[in-house]
Amino acid sequence: MNRKSIIWLTVLFLMVTAGCSKQQSARPAQEVVVKAMQVIQQDTPVTYEFVGEIIAKDEVQVKSEVSGNISRKFVNGGDTIRAGQPLFEIDRRKYAAAVADAQAQVAQAQASFSNIQRDVTRYQNLASQGGIAIQILDTTVSQAEQAEALVKAYQAKLEQAQNDLSDTLIVSPVNGRIGVNELSVGGYVQAGSTVLATVSTVDPVQVRFSMSENEYLKFAKMGNSPDAWGQNLKLILSDGSEYPLPGHLEQIDRGMANQTGTLAMKAAFDNPNQLLVPGMFARIMAIGETRQGALLIPQRAVQEMLGKTFVTVAGANKEAVTKPIKLGPKIGNLQVVEEGLTPQDIVVVEGFAKTQPGSPLNITMIGLNDLTIPGTK
């Protein structure tokens, strides 16, 4: 092949390559299929959310007033029980014997006191007639007083023995549910120290949660007192469902915890069906101020990167546009947007991960009912 042929082939190759490049560059970019929705603008009550733990309102450790071996057990672990219901019985034989012994001592002391009282009456008659010396009468009166005191002492001993015998039957101090780690028949109980069982009240229950110092200041500066926001609390369970009964704030700690800088609180919820069990985690939702004309978007539309938050919106020509935004509080599965959007914006909810700025969009509009996040109404 001569030199002219080589030059001609090179020129032809460059022309073909350039033509292909022009064809490729002329191809339109492929549309990205996305789901989007119009920014919602409406007056919105702002809700504040706190993570909490369900606890028993009252939790009582059952202990015995007397020592001994457990002779009978009337309940099983986990049973629902009522106040005054028998739980255990301590071996009562020695306590019954102590009552019988105390009764005998009282009877003996009373008999002795009665004899001395008769002597006092007789000596008083003799002394009035000068039949005996006054000193003898005084001595007999003193003996009668000592005998009476002994009767009272033995009566007190009898009362204590009867109380001990009564205390061998251990009853529940409250309505509630008994724990499963209680002692068994034959176990030894030390008075005042051995925990026989723990009984927790079940209705109502409390939810223990904490409010940060900044949250407390926000509520206080807006004039939202606990009497206002703490009277219609909602409880969201771990599966995302809302507990059907409202609660109310019941206790507020006296001050911020030194280590965590939070203010501990307790809210009470009725629990007639015993759905709520101590140890469950839940979220408390409190309604705060109402924001007029708030802008709302689905939480799932929000993107985060390097501490910044932004969303993808549909531009004038249905191309992808990235907008930085400033977020406000969460409202269910929606998010308040304080800066960065207008009511006219259309926000991409699904498919934004496949877009780039300027990407043409094939948009399917959706509404609130199409959101599938748990808790959507």
Automatic annotation (TrEMBL):
Keywords assigned: Coiled coil
The keyword Coiled coil belongs to this UniProt entry's keyword annotation: yes
Multidrug resistance protein MdtA-like C-terminal permuted SH3 domain sequence ranges: 294-352
Domain of life: Bacteria
A GO term for molecular function: transmembrane transporter activity
Residue ranges of domain Multidrug resistance protein MdtA-like barrel-sandwich hybrid in the record: 59-197
Coiled-coil segments on the chain, per record: 99-171
Cellular compartments annotated: Cell envelope
Ranges where the Multidrug resistance protein MdtA-like beta-barrel domain occurs: 204-284
Residues of the Multidrug resistance protein MdtA-like alpha-helical hairpin domain: 100-166
The keyword Chaperone appears for this protein: no
Record-level GO cellular component terms: cell envelope; plasma membrane
SUPFAM superfamilies: HlyD-like secretion proteins
GO biological process: response to antibiotic
Family, per entry: Belongs to the membrane fusion protein (MFP) (TC 8.A.1) family.
Name of the protein in its database record: Efflux pump periplasmic linker BepF
Native source organism of the sequence: uncultured Sporomusa sp
